[in-house]
Amino acid sequence: MQLNVRRGMGTSRTTGRGIVVLAITFLACSCERVPTENGQAAGGGRLETINGYLVLHVEGTPEEMGRQHGRLLKDKIKRVVADVIDSQVEYNPDLLPDAMKMEAYLPEDFRRELRALAKVVDIDYDRMVALQLFGDVNRAPFCTFFAVFDEATRTGEPIIGRNMDYDDYGVSEYGDVLIHFKPKDGLSFFTVSWAGIINGWTAMNEKGIVVANNSGYGTLENSLKGVSTCFMLRKVVQFADTVEKGVEIVKTTPRACGTIMLIAGGHPPDAVAVEYDHKNIAVRHARHGALVSDNDFGLLYLKEPRKPEPDGTYRYDVLCRLIREHFGKIDRSMNLIGVEGVPIDSMNVHSALLFPRDLSFRVAMGKIPAYKQPYRKFRMTPAGIVSNE
């Protein structure tokens, strides 16, 4: 596989050898206020279209953020719940009761936000909970991430890439949203999400801490008696201002299912993959400023740390090889996470590059596979998410 580098972002492909050319994509920014049904923004919250994507801003107490979210996205949330949860309940009658078993371990602030959201949208609380937790109850399929910094990048800055590969139930084309949270307690942060989902899949906070989660396979101890993977992610991104604090949160919080959690960024930059299940935990640190993970543990339960196959074609092997081949030259023009063979075409829900140094990021979503869509540029500010194009 060969990677040709151009300044900027966007991707085009030729057939035969999987050559990926990175080029500049200029996208018009459309920023417009989207009203609620009564023509008003919802008390402190707002919904905008920026660069063609829905961007939701919520702030305040858990109840206030839940109400803002529900009022601004009510119709979409109802549709997401119907497509994702109601369709599963028909053949999985344990989904709702199992989700409520995990709900008992959620921090109370998150429960308060969910209760307010469910009430505004007029959806049963257990169905709203299941929308947050179905990935742990059913076990999510596949994801990848990498983090590079220090000697691995051209300038030393941290660069993080993330693919969310998951069954999308048809939601991607109408339910994708970037959510900027400004909670009364904790740090401001954003997540790449679906309407109605308040936890997190790919997230970055105001201190430049990036968090993402992959399901971890090879685990011996799965359980519903712990904080769900995605709410663990949210807890870290909302309350950790360093990588070390993020690791401590995971260690001291009741854990549930097998997970590989990226915690990266910060000042000075660092990156770890926290590999855990219900009972056991191991922290895999970046080596020489580089860290890669898919869904297989790289340290936990292994006699020796996992090593990539030099000529392997698996996602992990491809990413490791790309980083090795461009070591010391990696910069913002290189979309390593979007190289063909790294995302899973049939379920690539979103693909993102994050740059903690200036809180900017690029994300492709809206259609599957997401990585074949334009990567649109944004930046997180104290006021919210803005275009960076």
Main-sheet strand order equals 4-5-6-9-10-11-12-13-14-15
Strand percentage lies at 25-35%
Please identify the top-level CATH class of the largest domain.
Answer: Alpha Beta
Helix content: 25-40%
CATH architecture classification of the largest domain: 4-Layer Sandwich
What structural keywords apply?
alpha+beta; 20 strands; 28% strand; 10-stranded mixed beta sheet; globular; 2 domains; disordered N terminus; 389 residues; 8 helices; single chain; Penicillin V Acylase, Chain A
Care to describe what's here?
With 389 residues, the chain is an alpha+beta fold. It folds into two domains: 32-137, no CATH class; 141-169 and 204-384, Penicillin V Acylase, Chain A, CATH 3.60.60. It is 26% helix and 28% strand. The protein is built from eight helices and 20 strands. The strands form three sheets. A ten-stranded mixed sheet has the order 4-5-6-9-10-11-12-13-14-15. A seven-stranded antiparallel sheet has the order 16-7-8-17-18-19-20, with helices on one face. Strands 1-3-2 form a three-stranded mixed sheet, with no helix packed on it. Helix 1 crosses helix 4 (125-138), helix 2 crosses helix 4 and helix 6 packs across helix 7. It is globular and about 50 Å long.
